[in-house]
Amino acid sequence: MNKIMIGLLVGALLGAIDGATAWFTPEVRNEMTGIIIGSTMKGLITGLIAGFVARKVNSVAIGVLVGLSVQAALSLAVAYAQGDHYLEIILPGSIVGAIVGFATQRYPASQRSEVATASR
Amino acid sequence: MRVSNKTLDHLRALVTSGVDRYELLEEIGRGGLGTVYAALDTRLDRRVALKVLNVPDLESESRILARLEHPGVVPVYDSGVLPDGRTFYAMKLIEGIRLDRYAEQAHSINERLRVFEKVCEPVAFAHARGVLHRDLKPSNIMIGSFGEVLVLDWGIPGVMGTAGFIPPEQVAGELGDVFALGRVLTRLTGDGAPKPVRAIAEKASSFRAERRYAGVAQLMSDVARYLDGERVMAYRENPLEWVGRMLTRHRVVAALLVTYLVMRIALIFITRR
């Protein structure tokens, strides 16, 4: 599996889970579907960008920074559009971005043991 | 290890009369089949290790070594026969420490295992070319000053090995070297080694040959799995150990997930006030 696919998968999965946590905020429970779809889209965009970066640059720090920045920017835009819940959207969203950025840099991991065996 | 002046003078005379090239400096090692001297190659003005074999009719170790061009095998520079019929050969003089001394020093388990991998590499390489070592033990392994690991004293037919590193079966084979490597791993990592590492060493040096790794490559793969944070074939871990290994292997992701959860929970409580 290539890095872009990893980014899209992890981004979508974590984005959806992050969106689902909105259930714990009672006043937005009737908007859950839209929130989950929106959060999943944010994750997909972050995963796509982080995946592209991971193909060009091999640096965990840069990967984490890119994921975090993209998600923070997208979350800020969503929160601004809503005009409320800045902290609840931006802070967890940024962590999700950092995880996506890390995942695209580290995975798929190079299998040292398999390479070692295959080379003999 | 000391040698009498009379013997040294005799050998000096033999070597200088035989090849007129090497000046013996001191004895640096002695084994069942020969003696190794530090010598000066007067033609190239460099120090070399000169091994004089006591047994003249065996296939020369130098020819075995010449077949093994590998960074983990000491390169042979020259070989010849002394006037008394004994074979000698000159090889690179390794400046470093033996593995038994290295094992006594303070090194992390992962550093020790990386050294062990480097010990296995030339042995696996030799096996692929039909050469057995037959006498693997810590004192036959050198760690050079640049961190290179070299396996010495390659198997001359007839070598029986060293007590504690000889497999119980009578017929020498690749599994005999696997057995000795298991013992080397035990000596290298000590009693405080993690359970999976101890299991690898125990499997490799099992008294029943069929329970050992099928070859050195399989042994190396299991060591590599441990270093990569993967489950090793020789050890069945319990669920708690699995969780611990996963947390160690994916500690950054684990830390980020914990941060996320803590942040989420904190935000829920803060926004409910």
The quaternary structure here is heterodimer
What class, by secondary structure content of chain B?
A: alpha+beta
What percent strand of chain A?
under 5%
C-alpha-based Rg of chain B, rounded: 24 Å
Shape of chain A: elongated
Task: Average the pLDDT over all residues of chain B and give the rounded result.
Answer: 84
Please name the two chains that share the biggest interface, counting residues whose Cβ lies under 8 Å from a Cβ on the partner chain. Answer: A-B, 24 and 25 residues
Instruction: Please identify the structural class of chain A as seen in this structure.
Output: mainly alpha
What does this structure look like?
The complex is a heterodimer of chains A (120) and B (273). Chain A is an all-alpha fold and 120 residues long. Chain A has one domain (3-108). Chain A has helices spanning 3-20, 32-56, 60-82, 86-106, 112-118. The model of chain A is unreliable at 113-120 (pLDDT under 50). With 273 residues, chain B is of the alpha+beta class. Chain B has helices at 5-18, 61-67, 99-104, 109-128, 174-189, 195-204, 216-227, 239-249, 251-272, and strands spanning 22-30, 34-41, 46-53, 76-81, 87-92, 96-98, 141-144, 149-151. The N and C termini of chain B lie far apart (81 Å). Classes of the chains: A mainly alpha (120), B alpha+beta (273). The A-B interface holds A 21, 24-25, 60, 85, 87-88, 91-92, 95-96, 98-99, 102-103, 106, 109, 111-114, 116-117, 120 and B 124-125, 128, 217-218, 220-222, 224-225, 227-228, 230, 252-253, 256-257, 259-260, 263-264, 267-268, 270-271.
